[in-house]
Amino acid sequence: MKTARRRALHVLWVDDDIGDVAGFGAHLRHSGHEVVMTPKVDEAETLLRTEPFDLLIVDQKMRSDEEAGTRLVGRLKDLELGDLNVNVHFGFFTGSDEWVYSSHIDVGGYQGYLGVEEKGENFEDWLELKLSEIAVKDDPPRDADIAADHEPRASPASERGTIDPADELEASWPGSTECWDGVVLDVEDDAFFVRLEDQTGRFGAHEARLPIDAIALSARQKLAVGARLEWRLVAEDDGNRRVIRSQIELSPVEVLDEKIVAAALQEARRLRQEL
Amino acid sequence: MTNPPAADEAEISLFGPGLGESAVIHLGAGEWMIVDSCRNPQTKRPVAMDYLHGLGIEPREAVSAVGVTHWDSDHIRGMGQLVQACRSAAIWCTAALDSAEFATLVALERDHPKAFTGRLREIAAITAVCTERGEQIRYMMEASMLLRRSGDGLPPREVHVLSPSFRSKDLSTLKVRGVLDIPKNLAEAVKRMSSNDASAVMMVTFGTRAALLGADLEDHDDDRCGWVAAIGRGREVGLRADFVKIPHHGSQDADHDDIWTDLLTGNPAAAMTPFRSGSTNLPKSTDRDRIRGRTDRAYLTSSRARITDEQPLLYAFPDAEVTRLEGRIGHVRWRRRLDETSPWEVAVDEVACPV
Mapping DSSP to helix (H, G, I), strand (E, B) and coil, where does residue B31 land? Predict the structure, then answer.
């Protein structure tokens, strides 16, 4: 079973009372992360425009402004600070979580939102949990590892590639099964782009850019624009943590014979002449 | 924003969830026109339908025209359902679709869905509705007129089509013919076909005033296409619009100085939708700066695709970049009296915002 190994993160911490949080910043540095701390929102904005970060930790109330933190995040996510950090993970470390929840800027919907923690002794535990939620991964599995992990089961229509346990993750989402039907829209060297429709009716349509190694090596020759995809995701409790298991089934795109196309064109021309 | 306009009021409502666009226009005297379609993720219905129902208006009788400016999926989601509901409406599509070649693609996708990505599904649905009704799709081309109303005590209203140009239409047909020549790559070839260059731009005139609906038309190397051609047609209408639906989500490629100097009054009322898909995020911050330099009355239907509901597990997949297509719908509404001087007045919901 593969387990996640955390990589060093580049963290920006914005709090008007740096002395209040210096110890937590030191804890992060001790854990191997690079931490930039600033008491000034305008300085944070400059940093967010110019330097890539993995994690943004924000105080909410700064200099008597109870919405300073959510306003900063809103400006970032609304592209007012450029594109560089628009997808950064972010969380609030603040005196009162009510200041965040009651803000007229609803940050809960932005991608990358990790939540709110009130300043207190639980911060380190909260931070540990959030760090584990940020995208972390072992080095990509070698082909031999994928072959050893997979148990491909042939079906009449397609070959099934099972990724579990190569993609076990820690997550904090409620337990559920998700079923997505998708179509591949683009294929790159190391990723592919897919449009997904939720078959459970809960989430609506999404698009996702996924790493190539989400598809079993043996199924990758089917990966082409127009290929159909069925994706099942299950969140399960494994002891004291939650893991997500993933299974992707790929069906190849249908290739039309030239004669079919020629016949269709001839029919279309005939119909237009009739009109 | 649930009160209908008065009979002597014009309204232009723009809807957008982050990926998607639909404009609902009150022409006066209870007559409506709808341009493009996107879907409400909660109801699964076209947002234009939900909006009119919310005003207590039945689309079946009140909508006299439905326009499809181009066939990008963010502009036609739910269009089949919409034209089905608008029983009295004339159905207009960009003339780029008016060819045997394009009809072939639509028929092939209908009959062989696994050979395509679903991009033409809504066009097939529109075609089926027209066939069922025994009607024909009408095609929008430069210098044509979509409708004309007068003699009802209100200023005369006309919808002038400024694009696509004849040259654009020909180029579109040639492009599709080229796709049909290599059928083994059909899914990918159709997926990659751009339809922006043959977008239908419209100028809606209300007496001596006008509104410009810019669709997704972009600039083009050939002056017989794109905005250079459309601006030429716009000058022939002889009016400057005091409202603009900003083209192509505010992108640089769709901005031409002469739009603002020759087709628009100073500081026009404006609305636009964002486009967020994959790594593409429009309008960029530079686009917003540029638009703010053109007008200080521009509004965006959605500041960001915000997800306020439970997030699906796929967001936790390692290294996945996920975008929700059908987020909360934002609404920008501009209204004014149908007279010579009343200003446009804006109303926005909690999702929309100034640019």
Answer: strand
The rounded distance, in Å, linking the Cα atoms of A35 and A56 is 10
Q: How far is A123 from chain B (nearest CA, A)?
A: 22
Is the per-residue pLDDT at A5 higher than 80? no
- Counting residues of chain A whose pLDDT is more than 70, the rounded percentage is 78
Residue A90 has phi, psi (to 5 degrees) of: -150, 150
Cβ–Cβ gap A202/B310 under 8 Å: yes
C-alpha distances out from residue B83 to A272, B60, B69, B126, B318, Å? 22, 9, 14, 7, 41
The yes-or-no verdict on residue B163 having pLDDT over 90 is: yes
Alpha helices in B276-335 (DSSP H): 285-294
The pLDDT tens digits of the residues spanning A110-149 come to 878 888 888 876 777 778 777 766 644 323 333 333 223 3
Answer whether B104 sits within 8 Å of A264, measured CB to CB. yes
pLDDT surpasses 60 at B51:
yes
Cβ contacts (< 8 Å) between B320 and chain A: which residues?
208-211, 214
CA-nearest residue to A254 within chain B is: B115
Query: What is d(CA B347, CA B154) in angstroms, rounded to the nearest whole number?
Result: 24
Cβ neighbors of A153 (< 8 A, separation 6 or more) are A159, A160, A162
pTM of the shown model: 0.73
Question: Is 60 exceeded by the pLDDT of residue B308?
Answer: no
User: Please, what is the end-to-end C-alpha distance for chain A in angstroms?
Assistant: 65
- Nearest by CB to residue B312, choosing from A74, A110, A178, is A178
Give which of A50, A73, A79 to mutate to test B binding, by max B Cβ within 10 Å: A79
CB contact under 8 A, A256 and B186: yes
